[in-house]
Amino acid sequence: MIILGFESSCDETGVAAVCTERGLLAHALHTQIAMHQEYGGVVPELASRDHIRRVVPLTRQVLQDAGLQMSDIGAVAYTAGPGLAGALLVGASVAQSFAWSRGLPAIGIHHLEGHLLSPMLADPRPEFPFIALLVSGGHSQLMRVDGVGRYELLGETLDDAAGEAFDKSAKLMGLGYPGGPALSRLAGSGDASRFDLPRPMLHSGDLDFSFSGLKTAVLTRVKAAEQNGGLDEQTRADLAAATQAAIVEVLAAKSIRALKQTGLRRLVVAGGVGANQLLRAKLDAALKPLKARAYFPPLELCTDNGAMIAFAAAERVKAGLATLDASAHSFTVKPRWDLADIA
């Protein structure tokens, strides 16, 4: 079966075609970064309108790139939540309309389940069970994954997620939007040892996260620098490097603790922060003595994309967890949706 997937939860419009037997056939993505830069963050109404403009051309591109006709599609998938309500409604309504017009089933997918399973699009593909570190702009979670739909929450953020810590710290340093990638790039020319920043909950003994205190520490350093002549470029780079090092150390330490507590030897890292090169290197090095391995999605699939939604739908179909009722086309979206609540 070929599944056409739509992602529109925030500021990326993604469309992809995935075959349950052959995997990813084609995907296309449009990011709204340039549009939102003027405002320093995502404007929900503008995001929704841009999804409307982009989704049909992207769908045509995917079908062309995959060499498919509309008649080849066997099911349609879409992000049902969590995310921005208006943005979710664009992808959901387009997907449901497409499915209704072709007499196809439509499958609502949890956005985080898409991220969770996205490393399985890479080669080699991790086998179940594994520990998953979900790190994105709004989520920092550690999950035990025993199979598709079989997820156990081990730990989560109590306040700011890792991605928020990157973005908010970058904003304090005057790096603009999107802050996380800009901070990581700048950190490459900085000295992380210059600033001693806290590692919140590093020794808490549990698997929860907290990054709001780190953000406050960054703010304190920025104000101190401004009172002493301003935040020059090298100071900004050093502070960026120290911030990145603090976040990565906590993420890596908690991930290793999760592996040790469960006895598992496979770690899957997914979400936008999973593209961070320091995090990848730190985990690879730390896991070798444990004879464990980290798995990451391809860099192009770390951010939100349609491929992960179509793939998650394909995996749910193969596991018998998707309802393939072609006559059911009423729908809703869930801006707030706990991963533990998925059916």
UniProtKB/TrEMBL annotation:
Residues of the Gcp-like domain: 24-311
Primary residence: cytoplasm
GO biological process: tRNA threonylcarbamoyladenosine modification
Keywords: Acyltransferase, Cytoplasm, Iron, Metal-binding, Transferase, tRNA processing
Free-text remark on how the cofactor is bound: Binds 1 Fe(2+) ion per subunit.
Cofactor: Fe(2+)
Protein's cellular compartments: Cytoplasm
Residues bound to substrate: 134-138, 167, 180, 276
Superkingdom of the source species: Bacteria
EC numbers, comma separated: 2.3.1.234
InterPro entries for this protein: ATPase_NBD, Gcp-like_dom, KAE1/TsaD, TsaD
One CC-aspect GO term: cytoplasm
Residue positions binding Fe cation: 111, 115, 304
GO molecular function, one term: iron ion binding
Catalytic reactions of this protein: L-threonylcarbamoyladenylate + adenosine(37) in tRNA = N(6)-L-threonylcarbamoyladenosine(37) in tRNA + AMP + H(+)
Family: Belongs to the KAE1 / TsaD family.
Described function: Required for the formation of a threonylcarbamoyl group on adenosine at position 37 (t(6)A37) in tRNAs that read codons beginning with adenine. Is involved in the transfer of the threonylcarbamoyl moiety of threonylcarbamoyl-AMP (TC-AMP) to the N6 group of A37, together with TsaE and TsaB. TsaD likely plays a direct catalytic role in this reaction.
Protein name, per record: tRNA N6-adenosine threonylcarbamoyltransferase
Gene that this sequence comes from: tsaD
